[in-house]
Amino acid sequence: MSDSDQTAAVAFGPDGKPVHDEIVAARRDVGADDSARANRAWWDEQAEDYYAEHGAFLGDAELVWGPEGVRESDLHLLGDVAGADVLEIGAGAAQGGRYVARTGARVVATDLSAGMLRRARAIDGSARVDDADEKGARATLPLVQCDGRALPFADASFDIVFSAHGVLAFVADPHVVLAEVARVLRPGGRAVFSTPHPMRWCFPDDPGPAGLVATMSYWDTTPYVESLAGRPTYAEHHRTLGARLREFVSAGLEVVDLLEPEWPDENTSVWGGWSPTRGAILPGTCIWVARRPG
Ligand SMILES: C[S@@+](CC[C@H](N)C(=O)[O-])C[C@H]1O[C@@H](n2cnc3c(N)ncnc32)[C@H](O)[C@@H]1O
Fold first, then answer.
1. Residue-range definition of the domain harbouring residue 118
2. Is pLDDT above 60 for 133?
3. Which residue has the higher pLDDT, 171 or 125?
4. Is residue 1 a part of any domain in this protein?
5. For ligand 1, is residue 86 a contact (CB within 6 Å)?
6. Distance 257 CA to ligand 1 centre (A)
7. Distances (CA, A) of 32 to 100, 181, 236
8. What total number of domains does the chain contain?
9. Where are the beta strands (DSSP E) in the chain?
10. Is 14 contained in some domain?
11. 218-259 pLDDT, tens per residue?
């Protein structure tokens, strides 16, 4: 759920001084570690703006699966969470984790970006969550800064792992993330992930009519990379539907459902390239529901 613009990042030269140059957006290869490094800096930099722009839409203690506005409180994709050990990865400001904690789970929220987690901690101290706490919610979530590709948790320590538009689209090696998810899940545990719908890749990231004209190959999985002075500052990675399915299966996860939420009539908001105009015609989000057999 990013809406990357091309002015947001700053690169630093070998002397540690900012390099003043144009951000260049291109489809090109980027190494897995370079991609993670770029995205960590990008989300650190963007954390406050992201919250200012999307915080009200997301709600401070709601699990919203995507810009369509579909909520866990309606879909119940995580199953019965009461008393469960739940891990959120790519949590951002952990709005989803906070919702799940309110419904009775023990939740740990994680993200690559310290900036996003700082925002999570700021929300924990906010009036809206204090108010929720009076109704029995847990106001302070455990937060852990880590890469979804290397989860610092023991094998089989969670019943549920989830992410709303976090991690998978931002890494060059999502099979590593899914292997980690399978490892930390208990047998019978559930993994639920929303990602950009692969169809979006073919269309310009434009919320208006221009975003309805396919201009790029669905099968070209060369990453979208923004760079400053040749150094990656942001990266997004695409998988076809079949490739993503095979990543889940190879990680030892059983995919039990794949949702493609329709854009609800009542949602009149625009989020980057997501909008009612495009939502009426094209899917924007996939929600993968999987389980670890056992
Ligand atoms: C579009 S935001 C979604 C945040 C939150 N789930 C939400 O719904 O607002 C993507 C998040 O993924 C995180 N992220 C990107 N790459 C990651 C990685 N390799 N490991 C963990 N988190 C990552 C970013 O820091 C960012 O917080």
1. 20-291
2. no
3. 171
4. no
5. no
6. 22
7. 31, 18, 11
8. 1
9. 11-12, 18-19, 23-27, 85-88, 106-111, 143-145, 158-164, 185-196, 224-228, 231-236, 254-259, 285-291
10. no
11. 999 999 999 999 999 999 999 999 999 999 999 999 999 999
